[in-house]
Amino acid sequence: MSDIHIRTEGHAGRITLTRPKALNALSYDMCLAIEAAVDRWRDDPNVALIVLDADGDRAFCAGGDIAEMYATGTTGDYAYGRQFWRDEYRLNAKLDEYPKPIVSFLHGFVMGGGVGLGGHCSHRIVCESTQLSMPEVGIGFVPDVGGTYLLARAPGRLGEYLGMTAAHMSAGDAIHAGFADTFVPQDAWDALKTALIETGDVAHITAAARPAPAAPLAALQPQIDRLFAGEGLSDIVNMLRQDDSDFAATALKALGRNAPLSLAVTLEMIHRLRGSTGLTIRKALELEYRVSHRIMEHGDFLEGIRAAIIDKDRSPKWRHALDKVPAVEVSKMLMPLGKDTLDFRERAMNIGFIGLGNMGAPMAANLAAAGHAVKGFDVAGTTAEGVTQVATAAEAATGADVVITMLPNGEILRSVAADIISHMSKGAVLLDCSTVDVGSARAVAELASAADVGVLDAPVSGGIGGAAGGTLTFMVGGSPEAFATAKPLFDIMGQKAVHCGASGSGQAAKICNNMILGVTMIATCEAFALADKLGLSREAMFDVVSTSSGYSWSMNAYCPAPGVGPQSPADNGYLPGFAADLMLKDLRLSQQAAEAADADTPLGQAATELYRTFVEDEDGSGKDFSAMLPRLEKRGRG
């Protein structure tokens, strides 16, 4: 992405904003890219800390890119802005709560969205050029992105003053107000960044720190505390009018430029949060979102953008006069949102799901139930609850953030991939959950890569029950970036997702795992059949083996003997949880891979032949793969 540079260096994850001509204003795509990076680095043992900085001399980040909000909002479409805010606020909360150090370097203008990005980090560094502010009231909005969380915790009535006047803070002011932590001269930043990257140790910040410059706001604190202590906007306006100081006149002039409704709402928000028990950033963001959700439709936000950004006439026509904001209008802005309450859920995605069979249908239904928009296609015409049925695979793929496939074999996967990849957006992810040969997985990865589409091979373990219950295990091959994109979906559909390596690694892990499963199930069934003929009860057999060296998943979790151990398909007449036909398919894939890799797998070969006989020559087709037990118990040595 040209607006942002995300990479790992040494022991650090690095995020650099790279649109200095736009004062590094934060776009929606930049927010999503930053969130994906911090999610990816959270559990990466090679990343000890994150360094967050920006190119250019003028600004770290001068706010959010609001042009698209204006374009959509003026047509009556408020959904774009609401989704942007939901996703941005979720990122703000993640930054504040992040388990690893995040070091932000805040130079030049740090305004609005820039505060939301750099102001909630664990180590916030400022310098001589820092000019930090929350200027939202000037465009008919309110301090957001967690700004009210910082304002409510500022000393005395400084939060009211900063939030209502949009006053700039110097480095010393920012530290005094609690918006920053450490002053480091800007000419020492490169050396500090190098030390942090090379060592992953934030102790270098203390060594580089210098005494904070003077804080003019600290000297003004007594006046601020006295003049901004009013309960409502009219109280503060009256106190400023009655005070003959230059400070009062300047503050009153600043209030006069800003949207009166925004001023009144900002004041009420700060008061509520300061009085809140156990204040957290999430409480502040939830309150802010009540306003964000309504501001385009019922506030001055669109008019403020018009006057400041679009027409640039600097003459906004606010809804109310400075001292005549109805209390009911403030209350309406801050009413709870009910079903629209900010819940910090991962971003709702547009998902295409191709292959709605016994596994695919419940997986797709779980994604839809979690709030994602799912379009589904199956050649048999089947669908799933909450999934919008479409007529073609290409239609399911068009406009999707992630396309999921659950298909019978590699040949069909190749055909479907060739059909849909040209319809997928650049940067979207093709997530194949089928169990296919490694060669097909890698061939599809090449097709996707050529089209600038991410790709993951992610076969599953857990059967139909796991698909329905959202407890599948995913074995995933592909890039770390694609894995990070799909991770929220894995968390809905399953209990575990293991990133196994490059493309094809997921399929390799699946066929190796299932070769073990096929072999151990046969061994478990053979042991039960032998125990029967030796006069050992199945209960005794289970009690001994399940707690000794014969322990295995086939014995302990999926016991093939009915009435013994946890409930399993054996207790339901061997109706398939995992069909013998599918086990035969997976074993054949394992032997195909073994042949290609020149690997000696004698037990895998033997298991393949036993399941082939059971499925193709006997009555095993349509039964669970553990039905090998009744087959063996009827047979003798010959």
Automatic annotation (TrEMBL):
Spans annotated as Disordered: 619-638
Start and end residues of each 3-hydroxyisobutyrate dehydrogenase-like NAD-binding domain: 504-629
All residue ranges annotated as the Enoyl-CoA hydratase/isomerase domain in the record: 13-333
Alphabetical list of Pfam families matching this protein: ECH_2 (PF16113), NAD_binding_11 (PF14833), NAD_binding_2 (PF03446)
Chemical reaction(s) catalysed: a (3S)-3-hydroxyacyl-CoA + NAD(+) = a 3-oxoacyl-CoA + NADH + H(+); 3-hydroxy-2-methylpropanoate + NAD(+) = 2-methyl-3-oxopropanoate + NADH + H(+)
EC number, as in UniProt: 1.1.1.31
Listed pathway(s): Amino-acid degradation; L-valine degradation
GO MF annotations, alphabetized: (3S)-3-hydroxyacyl-CoA dehydrogenase (NAD+) activity; 3-hydroxyisobutyrate dehydrogenase activity; NAD binding; NADP binding
GO aspect biological process, one term: L-valine catabolic process
Keyword NAD: yes
Domain 6-phosphogluconate dehydrogenase NADP-binding: 350-501
Superkingdom of the organism of origin: Bacteria
Keyword NAD: yes
Sorted UniProt keywords: Branched-chain amino acid catabolism, NAD, Oxidoreductase
PANTHER family the UniProt entry points to: 3-HYDROXYISOBUTYRATE DEHYDROGENASE, MITOCHONDRIAL, 3-HYDROXYISOBUTYRATE DEHYDROGENASE-RELATED
Family under the similarity heading: Belongs to the HIBADH-related family.
Name by which UniProt lists this protein: 3-hydroxyisobutyrate dehydrogenase
